[in-house]
Write a structure and sequence with these properties.
single chain, Alpha-Beta Plaits, 11 helices, globular
Length: about 300
């Protein structure tokens, strides 16, 4: 059985960094993939750092076609709702996600990775995340209430055995900036209607407001995903880094479309109420290969 990248499921980490890279002109894709695959964090068992490596789906498919789902694509075009609300496409070639107990080792590792890849790719985007009130996002609500347990998460997040790309996962990575001041003017009752849950205990509202975030992203309708969201930012710009894993791309894409009201005609189109207080700044899909497949590609690079 393929071995997944275990950092996907390493809950309880407090510091996160997401580095997105673009290949430099003229760089051979296979060489860049091998260089990224060869990177290891020697302090993993000491400092508690988890490293997850992924690639633009088309890039990975070109280098390892036997280990890539055929129907997964990058976030190659913006998604525009009936009212013009837009989710931008900022697809990059390589993603490195680090998580750990303390930011100092994350920072050092980030510098080392950027230096190691400098011959092949430029750092195009960096996002640093940190926890807020244990398990809440910056709306003040508990994040990931519907997340599967760790016992269930691998079935939800990983491409099944016998399928191309087995043991890998499809990652949707987005940076959402919140308008926290506007959000706070709603008051608790208004916020609960927008989310579709009670703020104190995350229990769902009944009846469910049709424009609520819960209603627009109902996993009973679209399929289950495994989320590792984390807050980011400073006083001027802050929000949520959405980190969603799934065995298939379609559930992730369908949720985004539903949030915008796509597929619904005319005045019947319903946009996720939460999007009136937050907007995405980035959008990318990555394929996260199985750890053993990644190691096989990186082995040659480490011996050169």
């Amino acid at each position: 059985m393929p071995i997944p990248q275990t950092g996907i499921f390493a809950l309880g980490t407090y510091s996160h960094a997401y580095l997105e890279f673009e290949l430099l002109p003229g760089v051979e894709p296979a060489t860049a993939v091998a260089a990224a695959a060869s990177l290891r964090e020697p302090r993993t068992t000491i400092g508690g750092v988890n490293l997850v490596c992924g690639f633009r789906p088309e890039l990975w498919r070109g280098v390892a076609p036997d280990s890539a789902p055929a129907d997964v694509e990058g976030f190659n075009a913006a998604i525009i709702g009936p009212d013009g609300y837009t989710m931008p496409a900022t697809q990059r070639d390589i993603v490195m996600w680090m998580s750990g107990a303390e930011y100092d080792v994350i920072f050092d590792l980030s510098r080392n990775i950027a230096a190691a890849l400098a011959t092949y790719a430029r750092l195009a985007n960096e996002m640093v995340g940190w926890p807020y009130l244990h398990d809440r996002d910056l709306t003040g609500f508990i994040d990931g209430t519907e997340n599967p347990t760790l016992v269930e998460a691998q079935e939800v997040a990983l491409v099944p055995h016998g399928s191309a790309g087995e043991g890998g996962s499809i990652l949707l990575l987005q940076k959402w900036m919140h308008s926290v001041s506007a959000w706070e003017t709603l008051g608790v009752a208004g916020q609960e209607r927008a989310i579709g849950r009670r703020k104190t205990d995350s229990a769902e509202l009944h009846p469910q407001p049709p424009a609520s975030h819960v209603a627009r992203t109902d996993q009973d309708n679209f399929g289950r995903i495994f989320r590792r969201n984390i807050p980011y930012g400073d006083l001027e710009e802050h929000g949520t880094v959405f980190v969603g894993f799934c065995a298939k791309q379609r559930p992730l894409a369908a949720m985004l479309e539903s949030m915008l009201g796509l597929g619904e005609q005319g005045s019947g189109a319903v946009r996720d109420e939460l999007t009136r207080f937050t907007r995405p700044l980035t959008g990318a899909y990555y394929f996260i290969p199985a750890a053993d497949r990644l190691a096989a590609l990186g082995a040659g690079e480490r011996t050169t």
